[in-house]
Amino acid sequence: EVQLVESGGGLVKPGGSLRLSCAASGFTFSSYTINWVRQAPGRGLEWVSSISTSGGYIYYADSVKGRFTISRDNAKNSLYLQMNSLRAEDTAVYYCARERVGELQGYYFDSWGQGTLVTVSS
Amino acid sequence: SSMLTQPPSVSVAPGQTARITCGGNNIGSKSVHWYQQKPGQAPVLVVYDDGDRPSGIPERFSGSNSGNTATLTISRVEAGDEAAYYCQVWDSGSFHCVFGTGTEVTVV
Predict the structure, then answer these.
(1) Are B100 and B5 in contact (CB under 8 A)?
(2) Minimal C-alpha gap between B101 and chain A (Å)
(3) Which of B48, B95, B96 to mutate to test the interface with A (most CBs of A within 10 A)?
């Protein structure tokens, strides 16, 4: 069974840092691009970042570029998100999600973790 | 990057058909995917590649995509279909994933 388990969320002051982790099991982690997606309280889904299988291709949403860093350790079946210079608007549940490519070359997320809550507040 | 517009809410009676639209400039040229999210839970993929269903998703869920509008159709709606639904595309121009604004489906 595919499992993605996020951890590392919590309360942090504006300007602070936090590192999220996502532990994967039940599939060959190194064969999949993995993404971070977040959801602010009462709001919709917002894509954050993507990292390819070996880490050679990395993309960020404009809202986090220059502040967040995505990385992965395939030996540990783990994904990370280093979040620096945090702002109140970064408050959200952060999900990791496994990416698939469809026959129409569209990229979608077929498995999601349960999420970890990050709260940025003084 | 792309913007995807959905109606904030759709109300439907049990047994009827719910149609949720996702509007975007020339969205018909992209592959559209749909997610269902119930309160306090992670999103679940219900349709990918415009109209394909993952295993375990009922045939009542179907999708179409043409021109500037993609549509998720839920036939014979059940109380358990009450949830928020999001469309999603990958914008190959900006290398960004884009989600729609989301639609709350209420079964009345």
Answers:
(1) yes
(2) 6
(3) B48
